[in-house]
Amino acid sequence: MSDASPVEGSTMWMRCNLDNGTGPIQYVWQHETRSGNISAFAQGNTSVINVTDINRNHTGWYHCVATNPVNSESSNRLWLNIIFGPDIPQIDVTPYSLTERGYSALERETVSLLCQAQSNPASQYVWFYNNSQVYTGPQLTITKILRMHTGDYACLAQNTYLNTRSKKTISLTVYYPPDGSPSCSIEPALNHTSLRLLCSWPGGFPSPSLHWTGDLKRLEQEEADTGQQTNPLINTAILLQSEGLTTNNSLFTCTGSHLALKQSTECSTRTYVPPAEPVCSAYVTNNQQYLMLSCSWDGGAPKALVWWEGPGGHGKGGEENSNILILRYGTTRSGKPYTCHAKHPLLVQTKTCTLTLEAPVLLTQRRVVSVYEGSDVQLTCNLKANYLPVSEITWFNNQGVDVQGTSKYTVLRTSAWANLTVRDTHETQDSGEYRCSSSNAVGGTEINVTLVVKRHPMPPNATLVNVMYNSRQRNAVELEWKVENEEGGGWTGFILEHMWVSERPERRGSSNDSKEETEERVGPPVWYPNIIQDPDVRSHTVGRLTPTVTYQFRITPVNHRTIGHPSAAKTPAEPRYNVYPAVIGAAIGGMLFATISTGLLLMFIIRNRNNNPRLHDMLFGLQHSQSRENINFPEDEVVGGSEGGIEEIGGLSSPDPTMALPRASSPLTTSPRSATTSQAPPPEDNNEPVSVTITVKATGS
Questions:
Q1: Are 304 and 275 in contact (CB under 8 A)?
Q2: Quick check: bond before 302 cis, omega within 30?
Q3: What are phi and psi of 606, to 5 degrees?
Q4: Domain 183-269 indexed as CATH 2.60.40
């Protein structure tokens, strides 16, 4: 083959070579398709054939069969690959739905677009939406398609081998319901003598279906009287005669449905007269070229018709709901009325309102305003009455400059007044005359207000009464001060300042140094302030100081923005060291310890009196010891005291408790000595001797 991959439409040749053979020889070229079908493509007595206008159908296997009277031989086969395309793409839409404009789909459906174009080699596909590339590939799927996806979709097929392309565009329309619900309205008809009911539901595709429900029989009867045709469908207009209409008319309902909605929706309307009266107003354009008279009668269903009538033939035809009459600025005269007329289909008589134009007059609460420096002050300016027309009230400062748009001033205004606020007043900058001006199409006026800004009175003097370090670390100073004339007041706070005076360096190691050296600070003194905003404070602690630095402190009272005279500077004193509290505390502690130790020693001697009788007699006396010799058991004394007290002898009781005798163990009377000799040995005491070690440790500070 001259070309195994020719382009469709080109020319090629195929030749069948023989090594040897006796003629005549017949040549047959056979074509085998992809599916295996074999057919004779060409035949003749020549070994070369020319193929013109190659097309895609020639693609397949080719081999040559050479035949003579002796033999027939078949050649090897060769593949002929025809390069072509791409053809015009074919676009399939699923779900399939055709309209006059192309394809259609319901909103929120899943739509699939498949593009196929014959090409060799295979085409590459690019999708475009409204000329913007959106996807690459043969199949474009849109999940839950929306109304915004309506438009033109184009599939571009490309043969990269031939660098050829083809394109096809389809139109896809997404059916969607209108937003919201139907809208019902009432409008006047026949020069505001009748009513028309309208129902609309804009948007959606295709258009929704609308129809009226309600008291249609009565409406149809009234329409029949006027010769109108009833058609309660989409955008149906129903005319009603004004005769017999009242403000409490029947309720009318419009029902709308759409194929993309499962349920229908509706709206209702009712006729009524505007609840208020017509309102007239006047205002001037920004460039003061025109005066505009406005008349409105808001509310009602349908809207009322309003028109102007004025002196000198000034007037304007009727408009619904509101009407504006435009006059040239300055052409009106004071006291001339302009009348607005209003007509509603449900009323037989018209309503009116009138404007009388007058020049404004300004008033102010105070012509002279006095304030202290630093405060905000408000200057008032208001109109004496509701003059018509009224332009915006303008304020000028003490320099004659309009204050609008400046941060120094704030203007709070309404249609009847405008108040100027001067912020953060200053004695020299803000004192003076401020001017308030206003004008309208009839005339103008202005008024001056004088502002006097005064300084706050000088605060009383303050004196530091105590300046002392609060510890030997010298890193914090406690200060106390007093204010002269405390009862008079007149201060809002204090400025507590400290200054670096000198620095004491560390002592040098040389023994020749006899005293400490000091280093004075070079340069002007710098006072570091501490702002105290509480006027009732009389003490303060300044911390984070350098221990080796000598400071000076002073106090200055402040009255708002007026600063008083600073007090005399003072250097902090060293803290007083008092040892009396420590000595007294140590003494009291020693006394308490000695008392406790003595008590424990006495308890030990008493409990062990039998083991140490001499020590016991020495502390408590011999007489007391002998008085207890006749007691056999220590418990007898306690029992005797509890049962009968002291024993009686000869009818007399012992006057001294220490001389009490124990009760006899028999009816015989024994003497004390015999009792002693016959006394049995004392029983063994259960309380064993206790060894007590007392250690006294005195500490002193």
A1: no
A2: yes
A3: -65, -45
A4: yes
pLDDT above 90: percentage of residues in the chain: 39
pLDDT tens string 46-72? 889 999 999 989 999 999 999 998 899
Q: Any idea which fold 12-80 has?
A: Immunoglobulin-like (2.60.40)
At what angle are helices 613-620 and 580-607 packed, to 10 degrees?
A: 120
State how far Cα 264 lies from the chain centre: 40
Q: In the chain, what is the straight-line distance between the N-terminal and C-terminal CA atoms, in Å?
A: 124
Which run of H or E residues covers position 281? Answer: strand 279-284
Q: Please choose, from the candidates 180, 345, 346, 182, the residue with its C-alpha nearest in 3D space to the C-alpha of residue 253.
A: 182
Q: How far is CA 70 from CA 20, 48, 64, 239, in A?
A: 12, 21, 17, 106
| CATH domain 362-454 topology | Immunoglobulin-like (2.60.40)
- Amino acid at residue number 315: G
Q: How far apart are CA 340 and CA 355, in angstroms?
A: 8
Could you tell me the two tokens for 570?
Answer: 């003072």
Q: What is the dotted CATH code of the domain comprising 90-175?
A: 2.60.40.10
Burial class from Cβ neighbours inside 10 Å (0-12, 13-18, 19+) for residue 121 reads middle
Could you say which architecture CATH assigns to the domain 279-356?
Sandwich (2.60)
For the cut 70, the answer to whether the pLDDT of residue 400 exceeds it is: yes
- For the record, the structure tokens of 167 come out as 């394109």
- Pairing type for strands 164-175 and 102-106 reads parallel
Query: CB within 8 A of 352, min separation 6: which ones?
Result: 278, 339, 340, 341, 342
DSSP 207-222: PPEEEEESSHHHHHHH
**Surface-to-core class of residue 49, CB atoms within 10 Å of its CB (0-12 exposed, 13-18 middle, 19+ buried):** middle
SS (H, E, C) 590-638: HHHHHHHHHHHHHHHHHHCCCCCHHHHHHHHCHHHHHCCCCCCCHHHHH
Q: What is the pTM of this model?
A: 0.38
Q: What DSSP string runs through 559-583? A: ETTEE-PPPPPBPPBPPP---HHHH
Q: Give me 480's structure tokens.
A: 């106390």
**Integer Cα distance of 584 and 591 in angstroms:** 11
Q: How far apart are CA 441 and CA 391, in angstroms?
A: 9
Helix (H) or strand (E) holding 626: helix 622-626
pLDDT beyond 60 at 222:
no
Whether 670 shows a pLDDT value over 50: the answer reads no
Give the tokens for residue 544.
């984070």
pLDDT at residue 629, as a whole number: 40
Contact present, 307 and 350 (Cβ < 8 Å) = no
Furthest-apart CA pair in the chain: how many Å?
A: 191
With residue 186 as reference, give the H or E element that holds it: strand 183-189
